């Protein structure tokens, strides 16, 4: 199971990113645990300067804006 964290203060883009991650995992039949991180300190400690951000199994894969669907599929499949 992949551990995914979506970082952001709770804005529409952050919520949309979380939904995109869940939809991609379902479409690809990949088991994931998605955690939403809204604490500004945790976001900064993760090295994310622009939200939304995504980490997969502790590795930062995206920061700033909505992720590209093809890239998201690639990250989840890796």
Automatic annotation (TrEMBL):
Disulfide bonds join 11-14. Gene3D superfamilies: Glutaredoxin. Keywords: Disulfide bond, Plasmid, Redox-active center. The active site is at residues 11, 14. Residues 3-76 form the Thioredoxin-like fold domain. The keyword Coiled coil does not apply. Coiled coil: none annotated. This is Thioredoxin family protein.
């Amino acid at each position: 199971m992949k551990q995914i964290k979506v970082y952001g203060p709770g804005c529409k883009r952050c919520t949309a990113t979380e939904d995109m991650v869940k939809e991609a995992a379902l479409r690809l039949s990949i088991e994931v645990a998605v955690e939403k991180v809204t604490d500004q300190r945790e976001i900064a400690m993760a090295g994310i300067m622009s939200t939304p951000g995504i980490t997969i199994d502790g590795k930062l894969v995206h920061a700033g804006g909505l992720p590209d669907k093809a890239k998201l599929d690639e990250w989840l499949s890796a």
